[in-house]
Design a protein that fits this description.
Blueprint: E1 3-7, H1 12-21, E2 27-31, H2 48-63, E3 67-76, E4 83-84, H3 97-107, E5 117-129, E6 132-144, E7 160-162, H4 174-180, H5 182-199
Parallel strand pairs: 1-2, 1-3
Antiparallel strand pairs: 3-4, 3-5, 5-6, 6-7
Helix pairs in contact: 4-5
C-alpha cells in the first residue's frame, strides 16, 4: 500500500536530498507545492526541536495526513554556538545563502583553522496525528574553512569541511553527501523507523 507523506520544505535542494533518502519506504513523497498548498510557518522557537514540531503540526492541520518537517542549525564553537538555530537567517531576513556565508566568514576572520570547529545538527519531526509525533536527529562534525570551495550543495556547504573528508559538502555529490550529512543521519533514523513499522 502506498501512503502519502508531505515533506515540509519549499527548498528544492532539500526536496531532492529527502526524496533520495526515503526512496526505500512505501511512502509517496509529496511537497506542499505538489498539493498546491501554501503554508508559511514562522520559525520563532529557540530550539531545532521546537521549530520542527511547529512546522509539522501546522502542516498536518491543513493536509490531514502524515507530515515531516525538519530544522537544521550550524553551531560554531568559536562563536559560542552561533549561528545555531538561526543559521538560515544569520545575515537577516530574506537573505541569500551567500549572504549568510559571507557573514560567517567575516565573524571568523582571524581565527586560526584549528579553532574553527563546528557541527551541523538536524532534527526531523514526523507528525502523524494530533499531538502524535516522533523526533529524529543527526549530527555532522567538521570545521569552517577560510574560503569557499565547491559548486554543489547549498547553504553553508561551500565553507564546511566534514571530519574525515578532504572535500567540503559543496564538493561532494548528493549521493556522497547523503552518506555522511547531518540531515541524512536524521532521515536515515526516520527511514529505519518507517521500515520497522512497515514490517511489523
Amino acid at each position: 500500500m502506498i501512503n502519502k507523506l508531505v515533506i515540509g520544505t519549499n527548498n528544492p535542494d532539500k526536496v531532492i536530498e529527502i526524496r533520495e533518502m526515503l526512496k526505500e519506504t512505501n511512502f509517496e513523497i509529496k511537497t506542499l507545492k505538489d498539493l498546491n498548498v501554501s503554508i508559511e510557518v514562522e520559525e520563532d522557537r529557540d530550539t531545532l526541536e521546537g521549530n520542527a514540531i511547529k512546522k509539522a503540526e501546522e502542516m498536518w492541520a491543513v493536509v490531514n495526513f502524515p507530515c515531516t518537517a525538519d530544522d537544521t542549525g550550524l553551531f560554531v564553537d568559536a562563536l559560542d554556538g552561533a549561528p545555531g538555530v538561526y543559521a538560515a537567517r544569520y545575515a537577516g531576513e530574506d537573505v541569500t545563502y551567500e549572504d549568510n556565508r559571507k557573514k560567517l566568514l567575516k565573524e571568523l576572520d582571524g581565527i586560526p583553522e584549528e579553532k574553527r570547529s563546528a557541527f551541523f545538527r538536524t532534527v526531523v519531526c514526523y507528525y502523524y496525528g494530533k499531538d502524535k509525533y516522533e523526533l529524529f536527529d543527526g549530527i555532522c562534525k567538521g570545521r569552517i574553512l577560510t574560503n569557499e570551495r565547491g559548486e554543489k550543495g547549498f547553504g553553508y556547504d561551500a565553507v564546511f569541511l566534514p571530519d574525515g573528508s578532504d572535500r567540503t559538502f559543496a564538493e561532494l555529490s548528493t549521493e556522497e553527501k547523503n552518506l555522511i550529512s547531518h540531515r541524512a543521519k536524521a532521515f536515515n533514523k526516520f527511514k529505519e523507523y518507517l521500515l520497522s513499522k512497515q514490517s511489523s
